[in-house]
Amino acid sequence: MEQTVSRSQLGFSLLSVTFLLCLTSGAFGSIDPDKLKAIIDYIREYGIKNIHYAVAIRLDHAYCVEPTPTILETVLPRSKMQQMKNALDHRNGIYVPKPIGDVIAARPRFTRSKEHAEWRLLTGGQNSPVERILSNKDQNSCLIFFSKLSPCVERCLNESDARNIVQMVNPLFNRYSEDSRAFVFETVYMKDTVKEHEAVVGAWEHIQGAPLFRCYSNNRGCIKCFDDNQSSDRNPCLGDEVETER
């Protein structure tokens, strides 16, 4: 089903990169949400409106620590990002260039059994698009996975579903220190907004160690979805914003 956004509907917001990234000064420091937002905003410049998509980016540590506009344009050239956007503009679009670079992207693929955008980038074992951008790269890197929509409860985070992404996200992200990885979304998947809070958060907990972030498209910035000090009454990433539908 195509993604549509209605500004008349309020709900959860995501931008589901999923991204792994390294935005910290210390070996065990926390990711700087402002620096994370700078990278996500740059990605969103080349995203597509009203349609779900996912992007994965690998950056060297130094570029994650200081993601200025000049640096981002150098390591992720606008010409390459425009090629990514052009690929995403097509139905079933996917951007996995040859030779492989440091950015890949995909929309859902509509077949008899729909392939979600996140799945398309993560599936394939050692030959998956994500593994290919990481291949033979220094481990002192950051990986940022951005998904416009939050990973869905019914399939993406359902470990009983053969096409769940939990089986790939956790082993992949665990190869990096926590300050060198992040899975980011912008809007909460609309069908999950009507589910019980406990069901949604419980599903998100399957990849909470990614760690999971939400980066709003407005001035609210980026927030970490799980924190040892947060209240269990309501997850901070379940806020209001424009709804997006898969």
Automatic annotation (TrEMBL):
It comes from the Eukaryota. Keywords: Signal. Pfam families: SNAD1. InterPro entries: SNAD1. Residues 1-29 form the signal peptide. This is Uncharacterized protein.
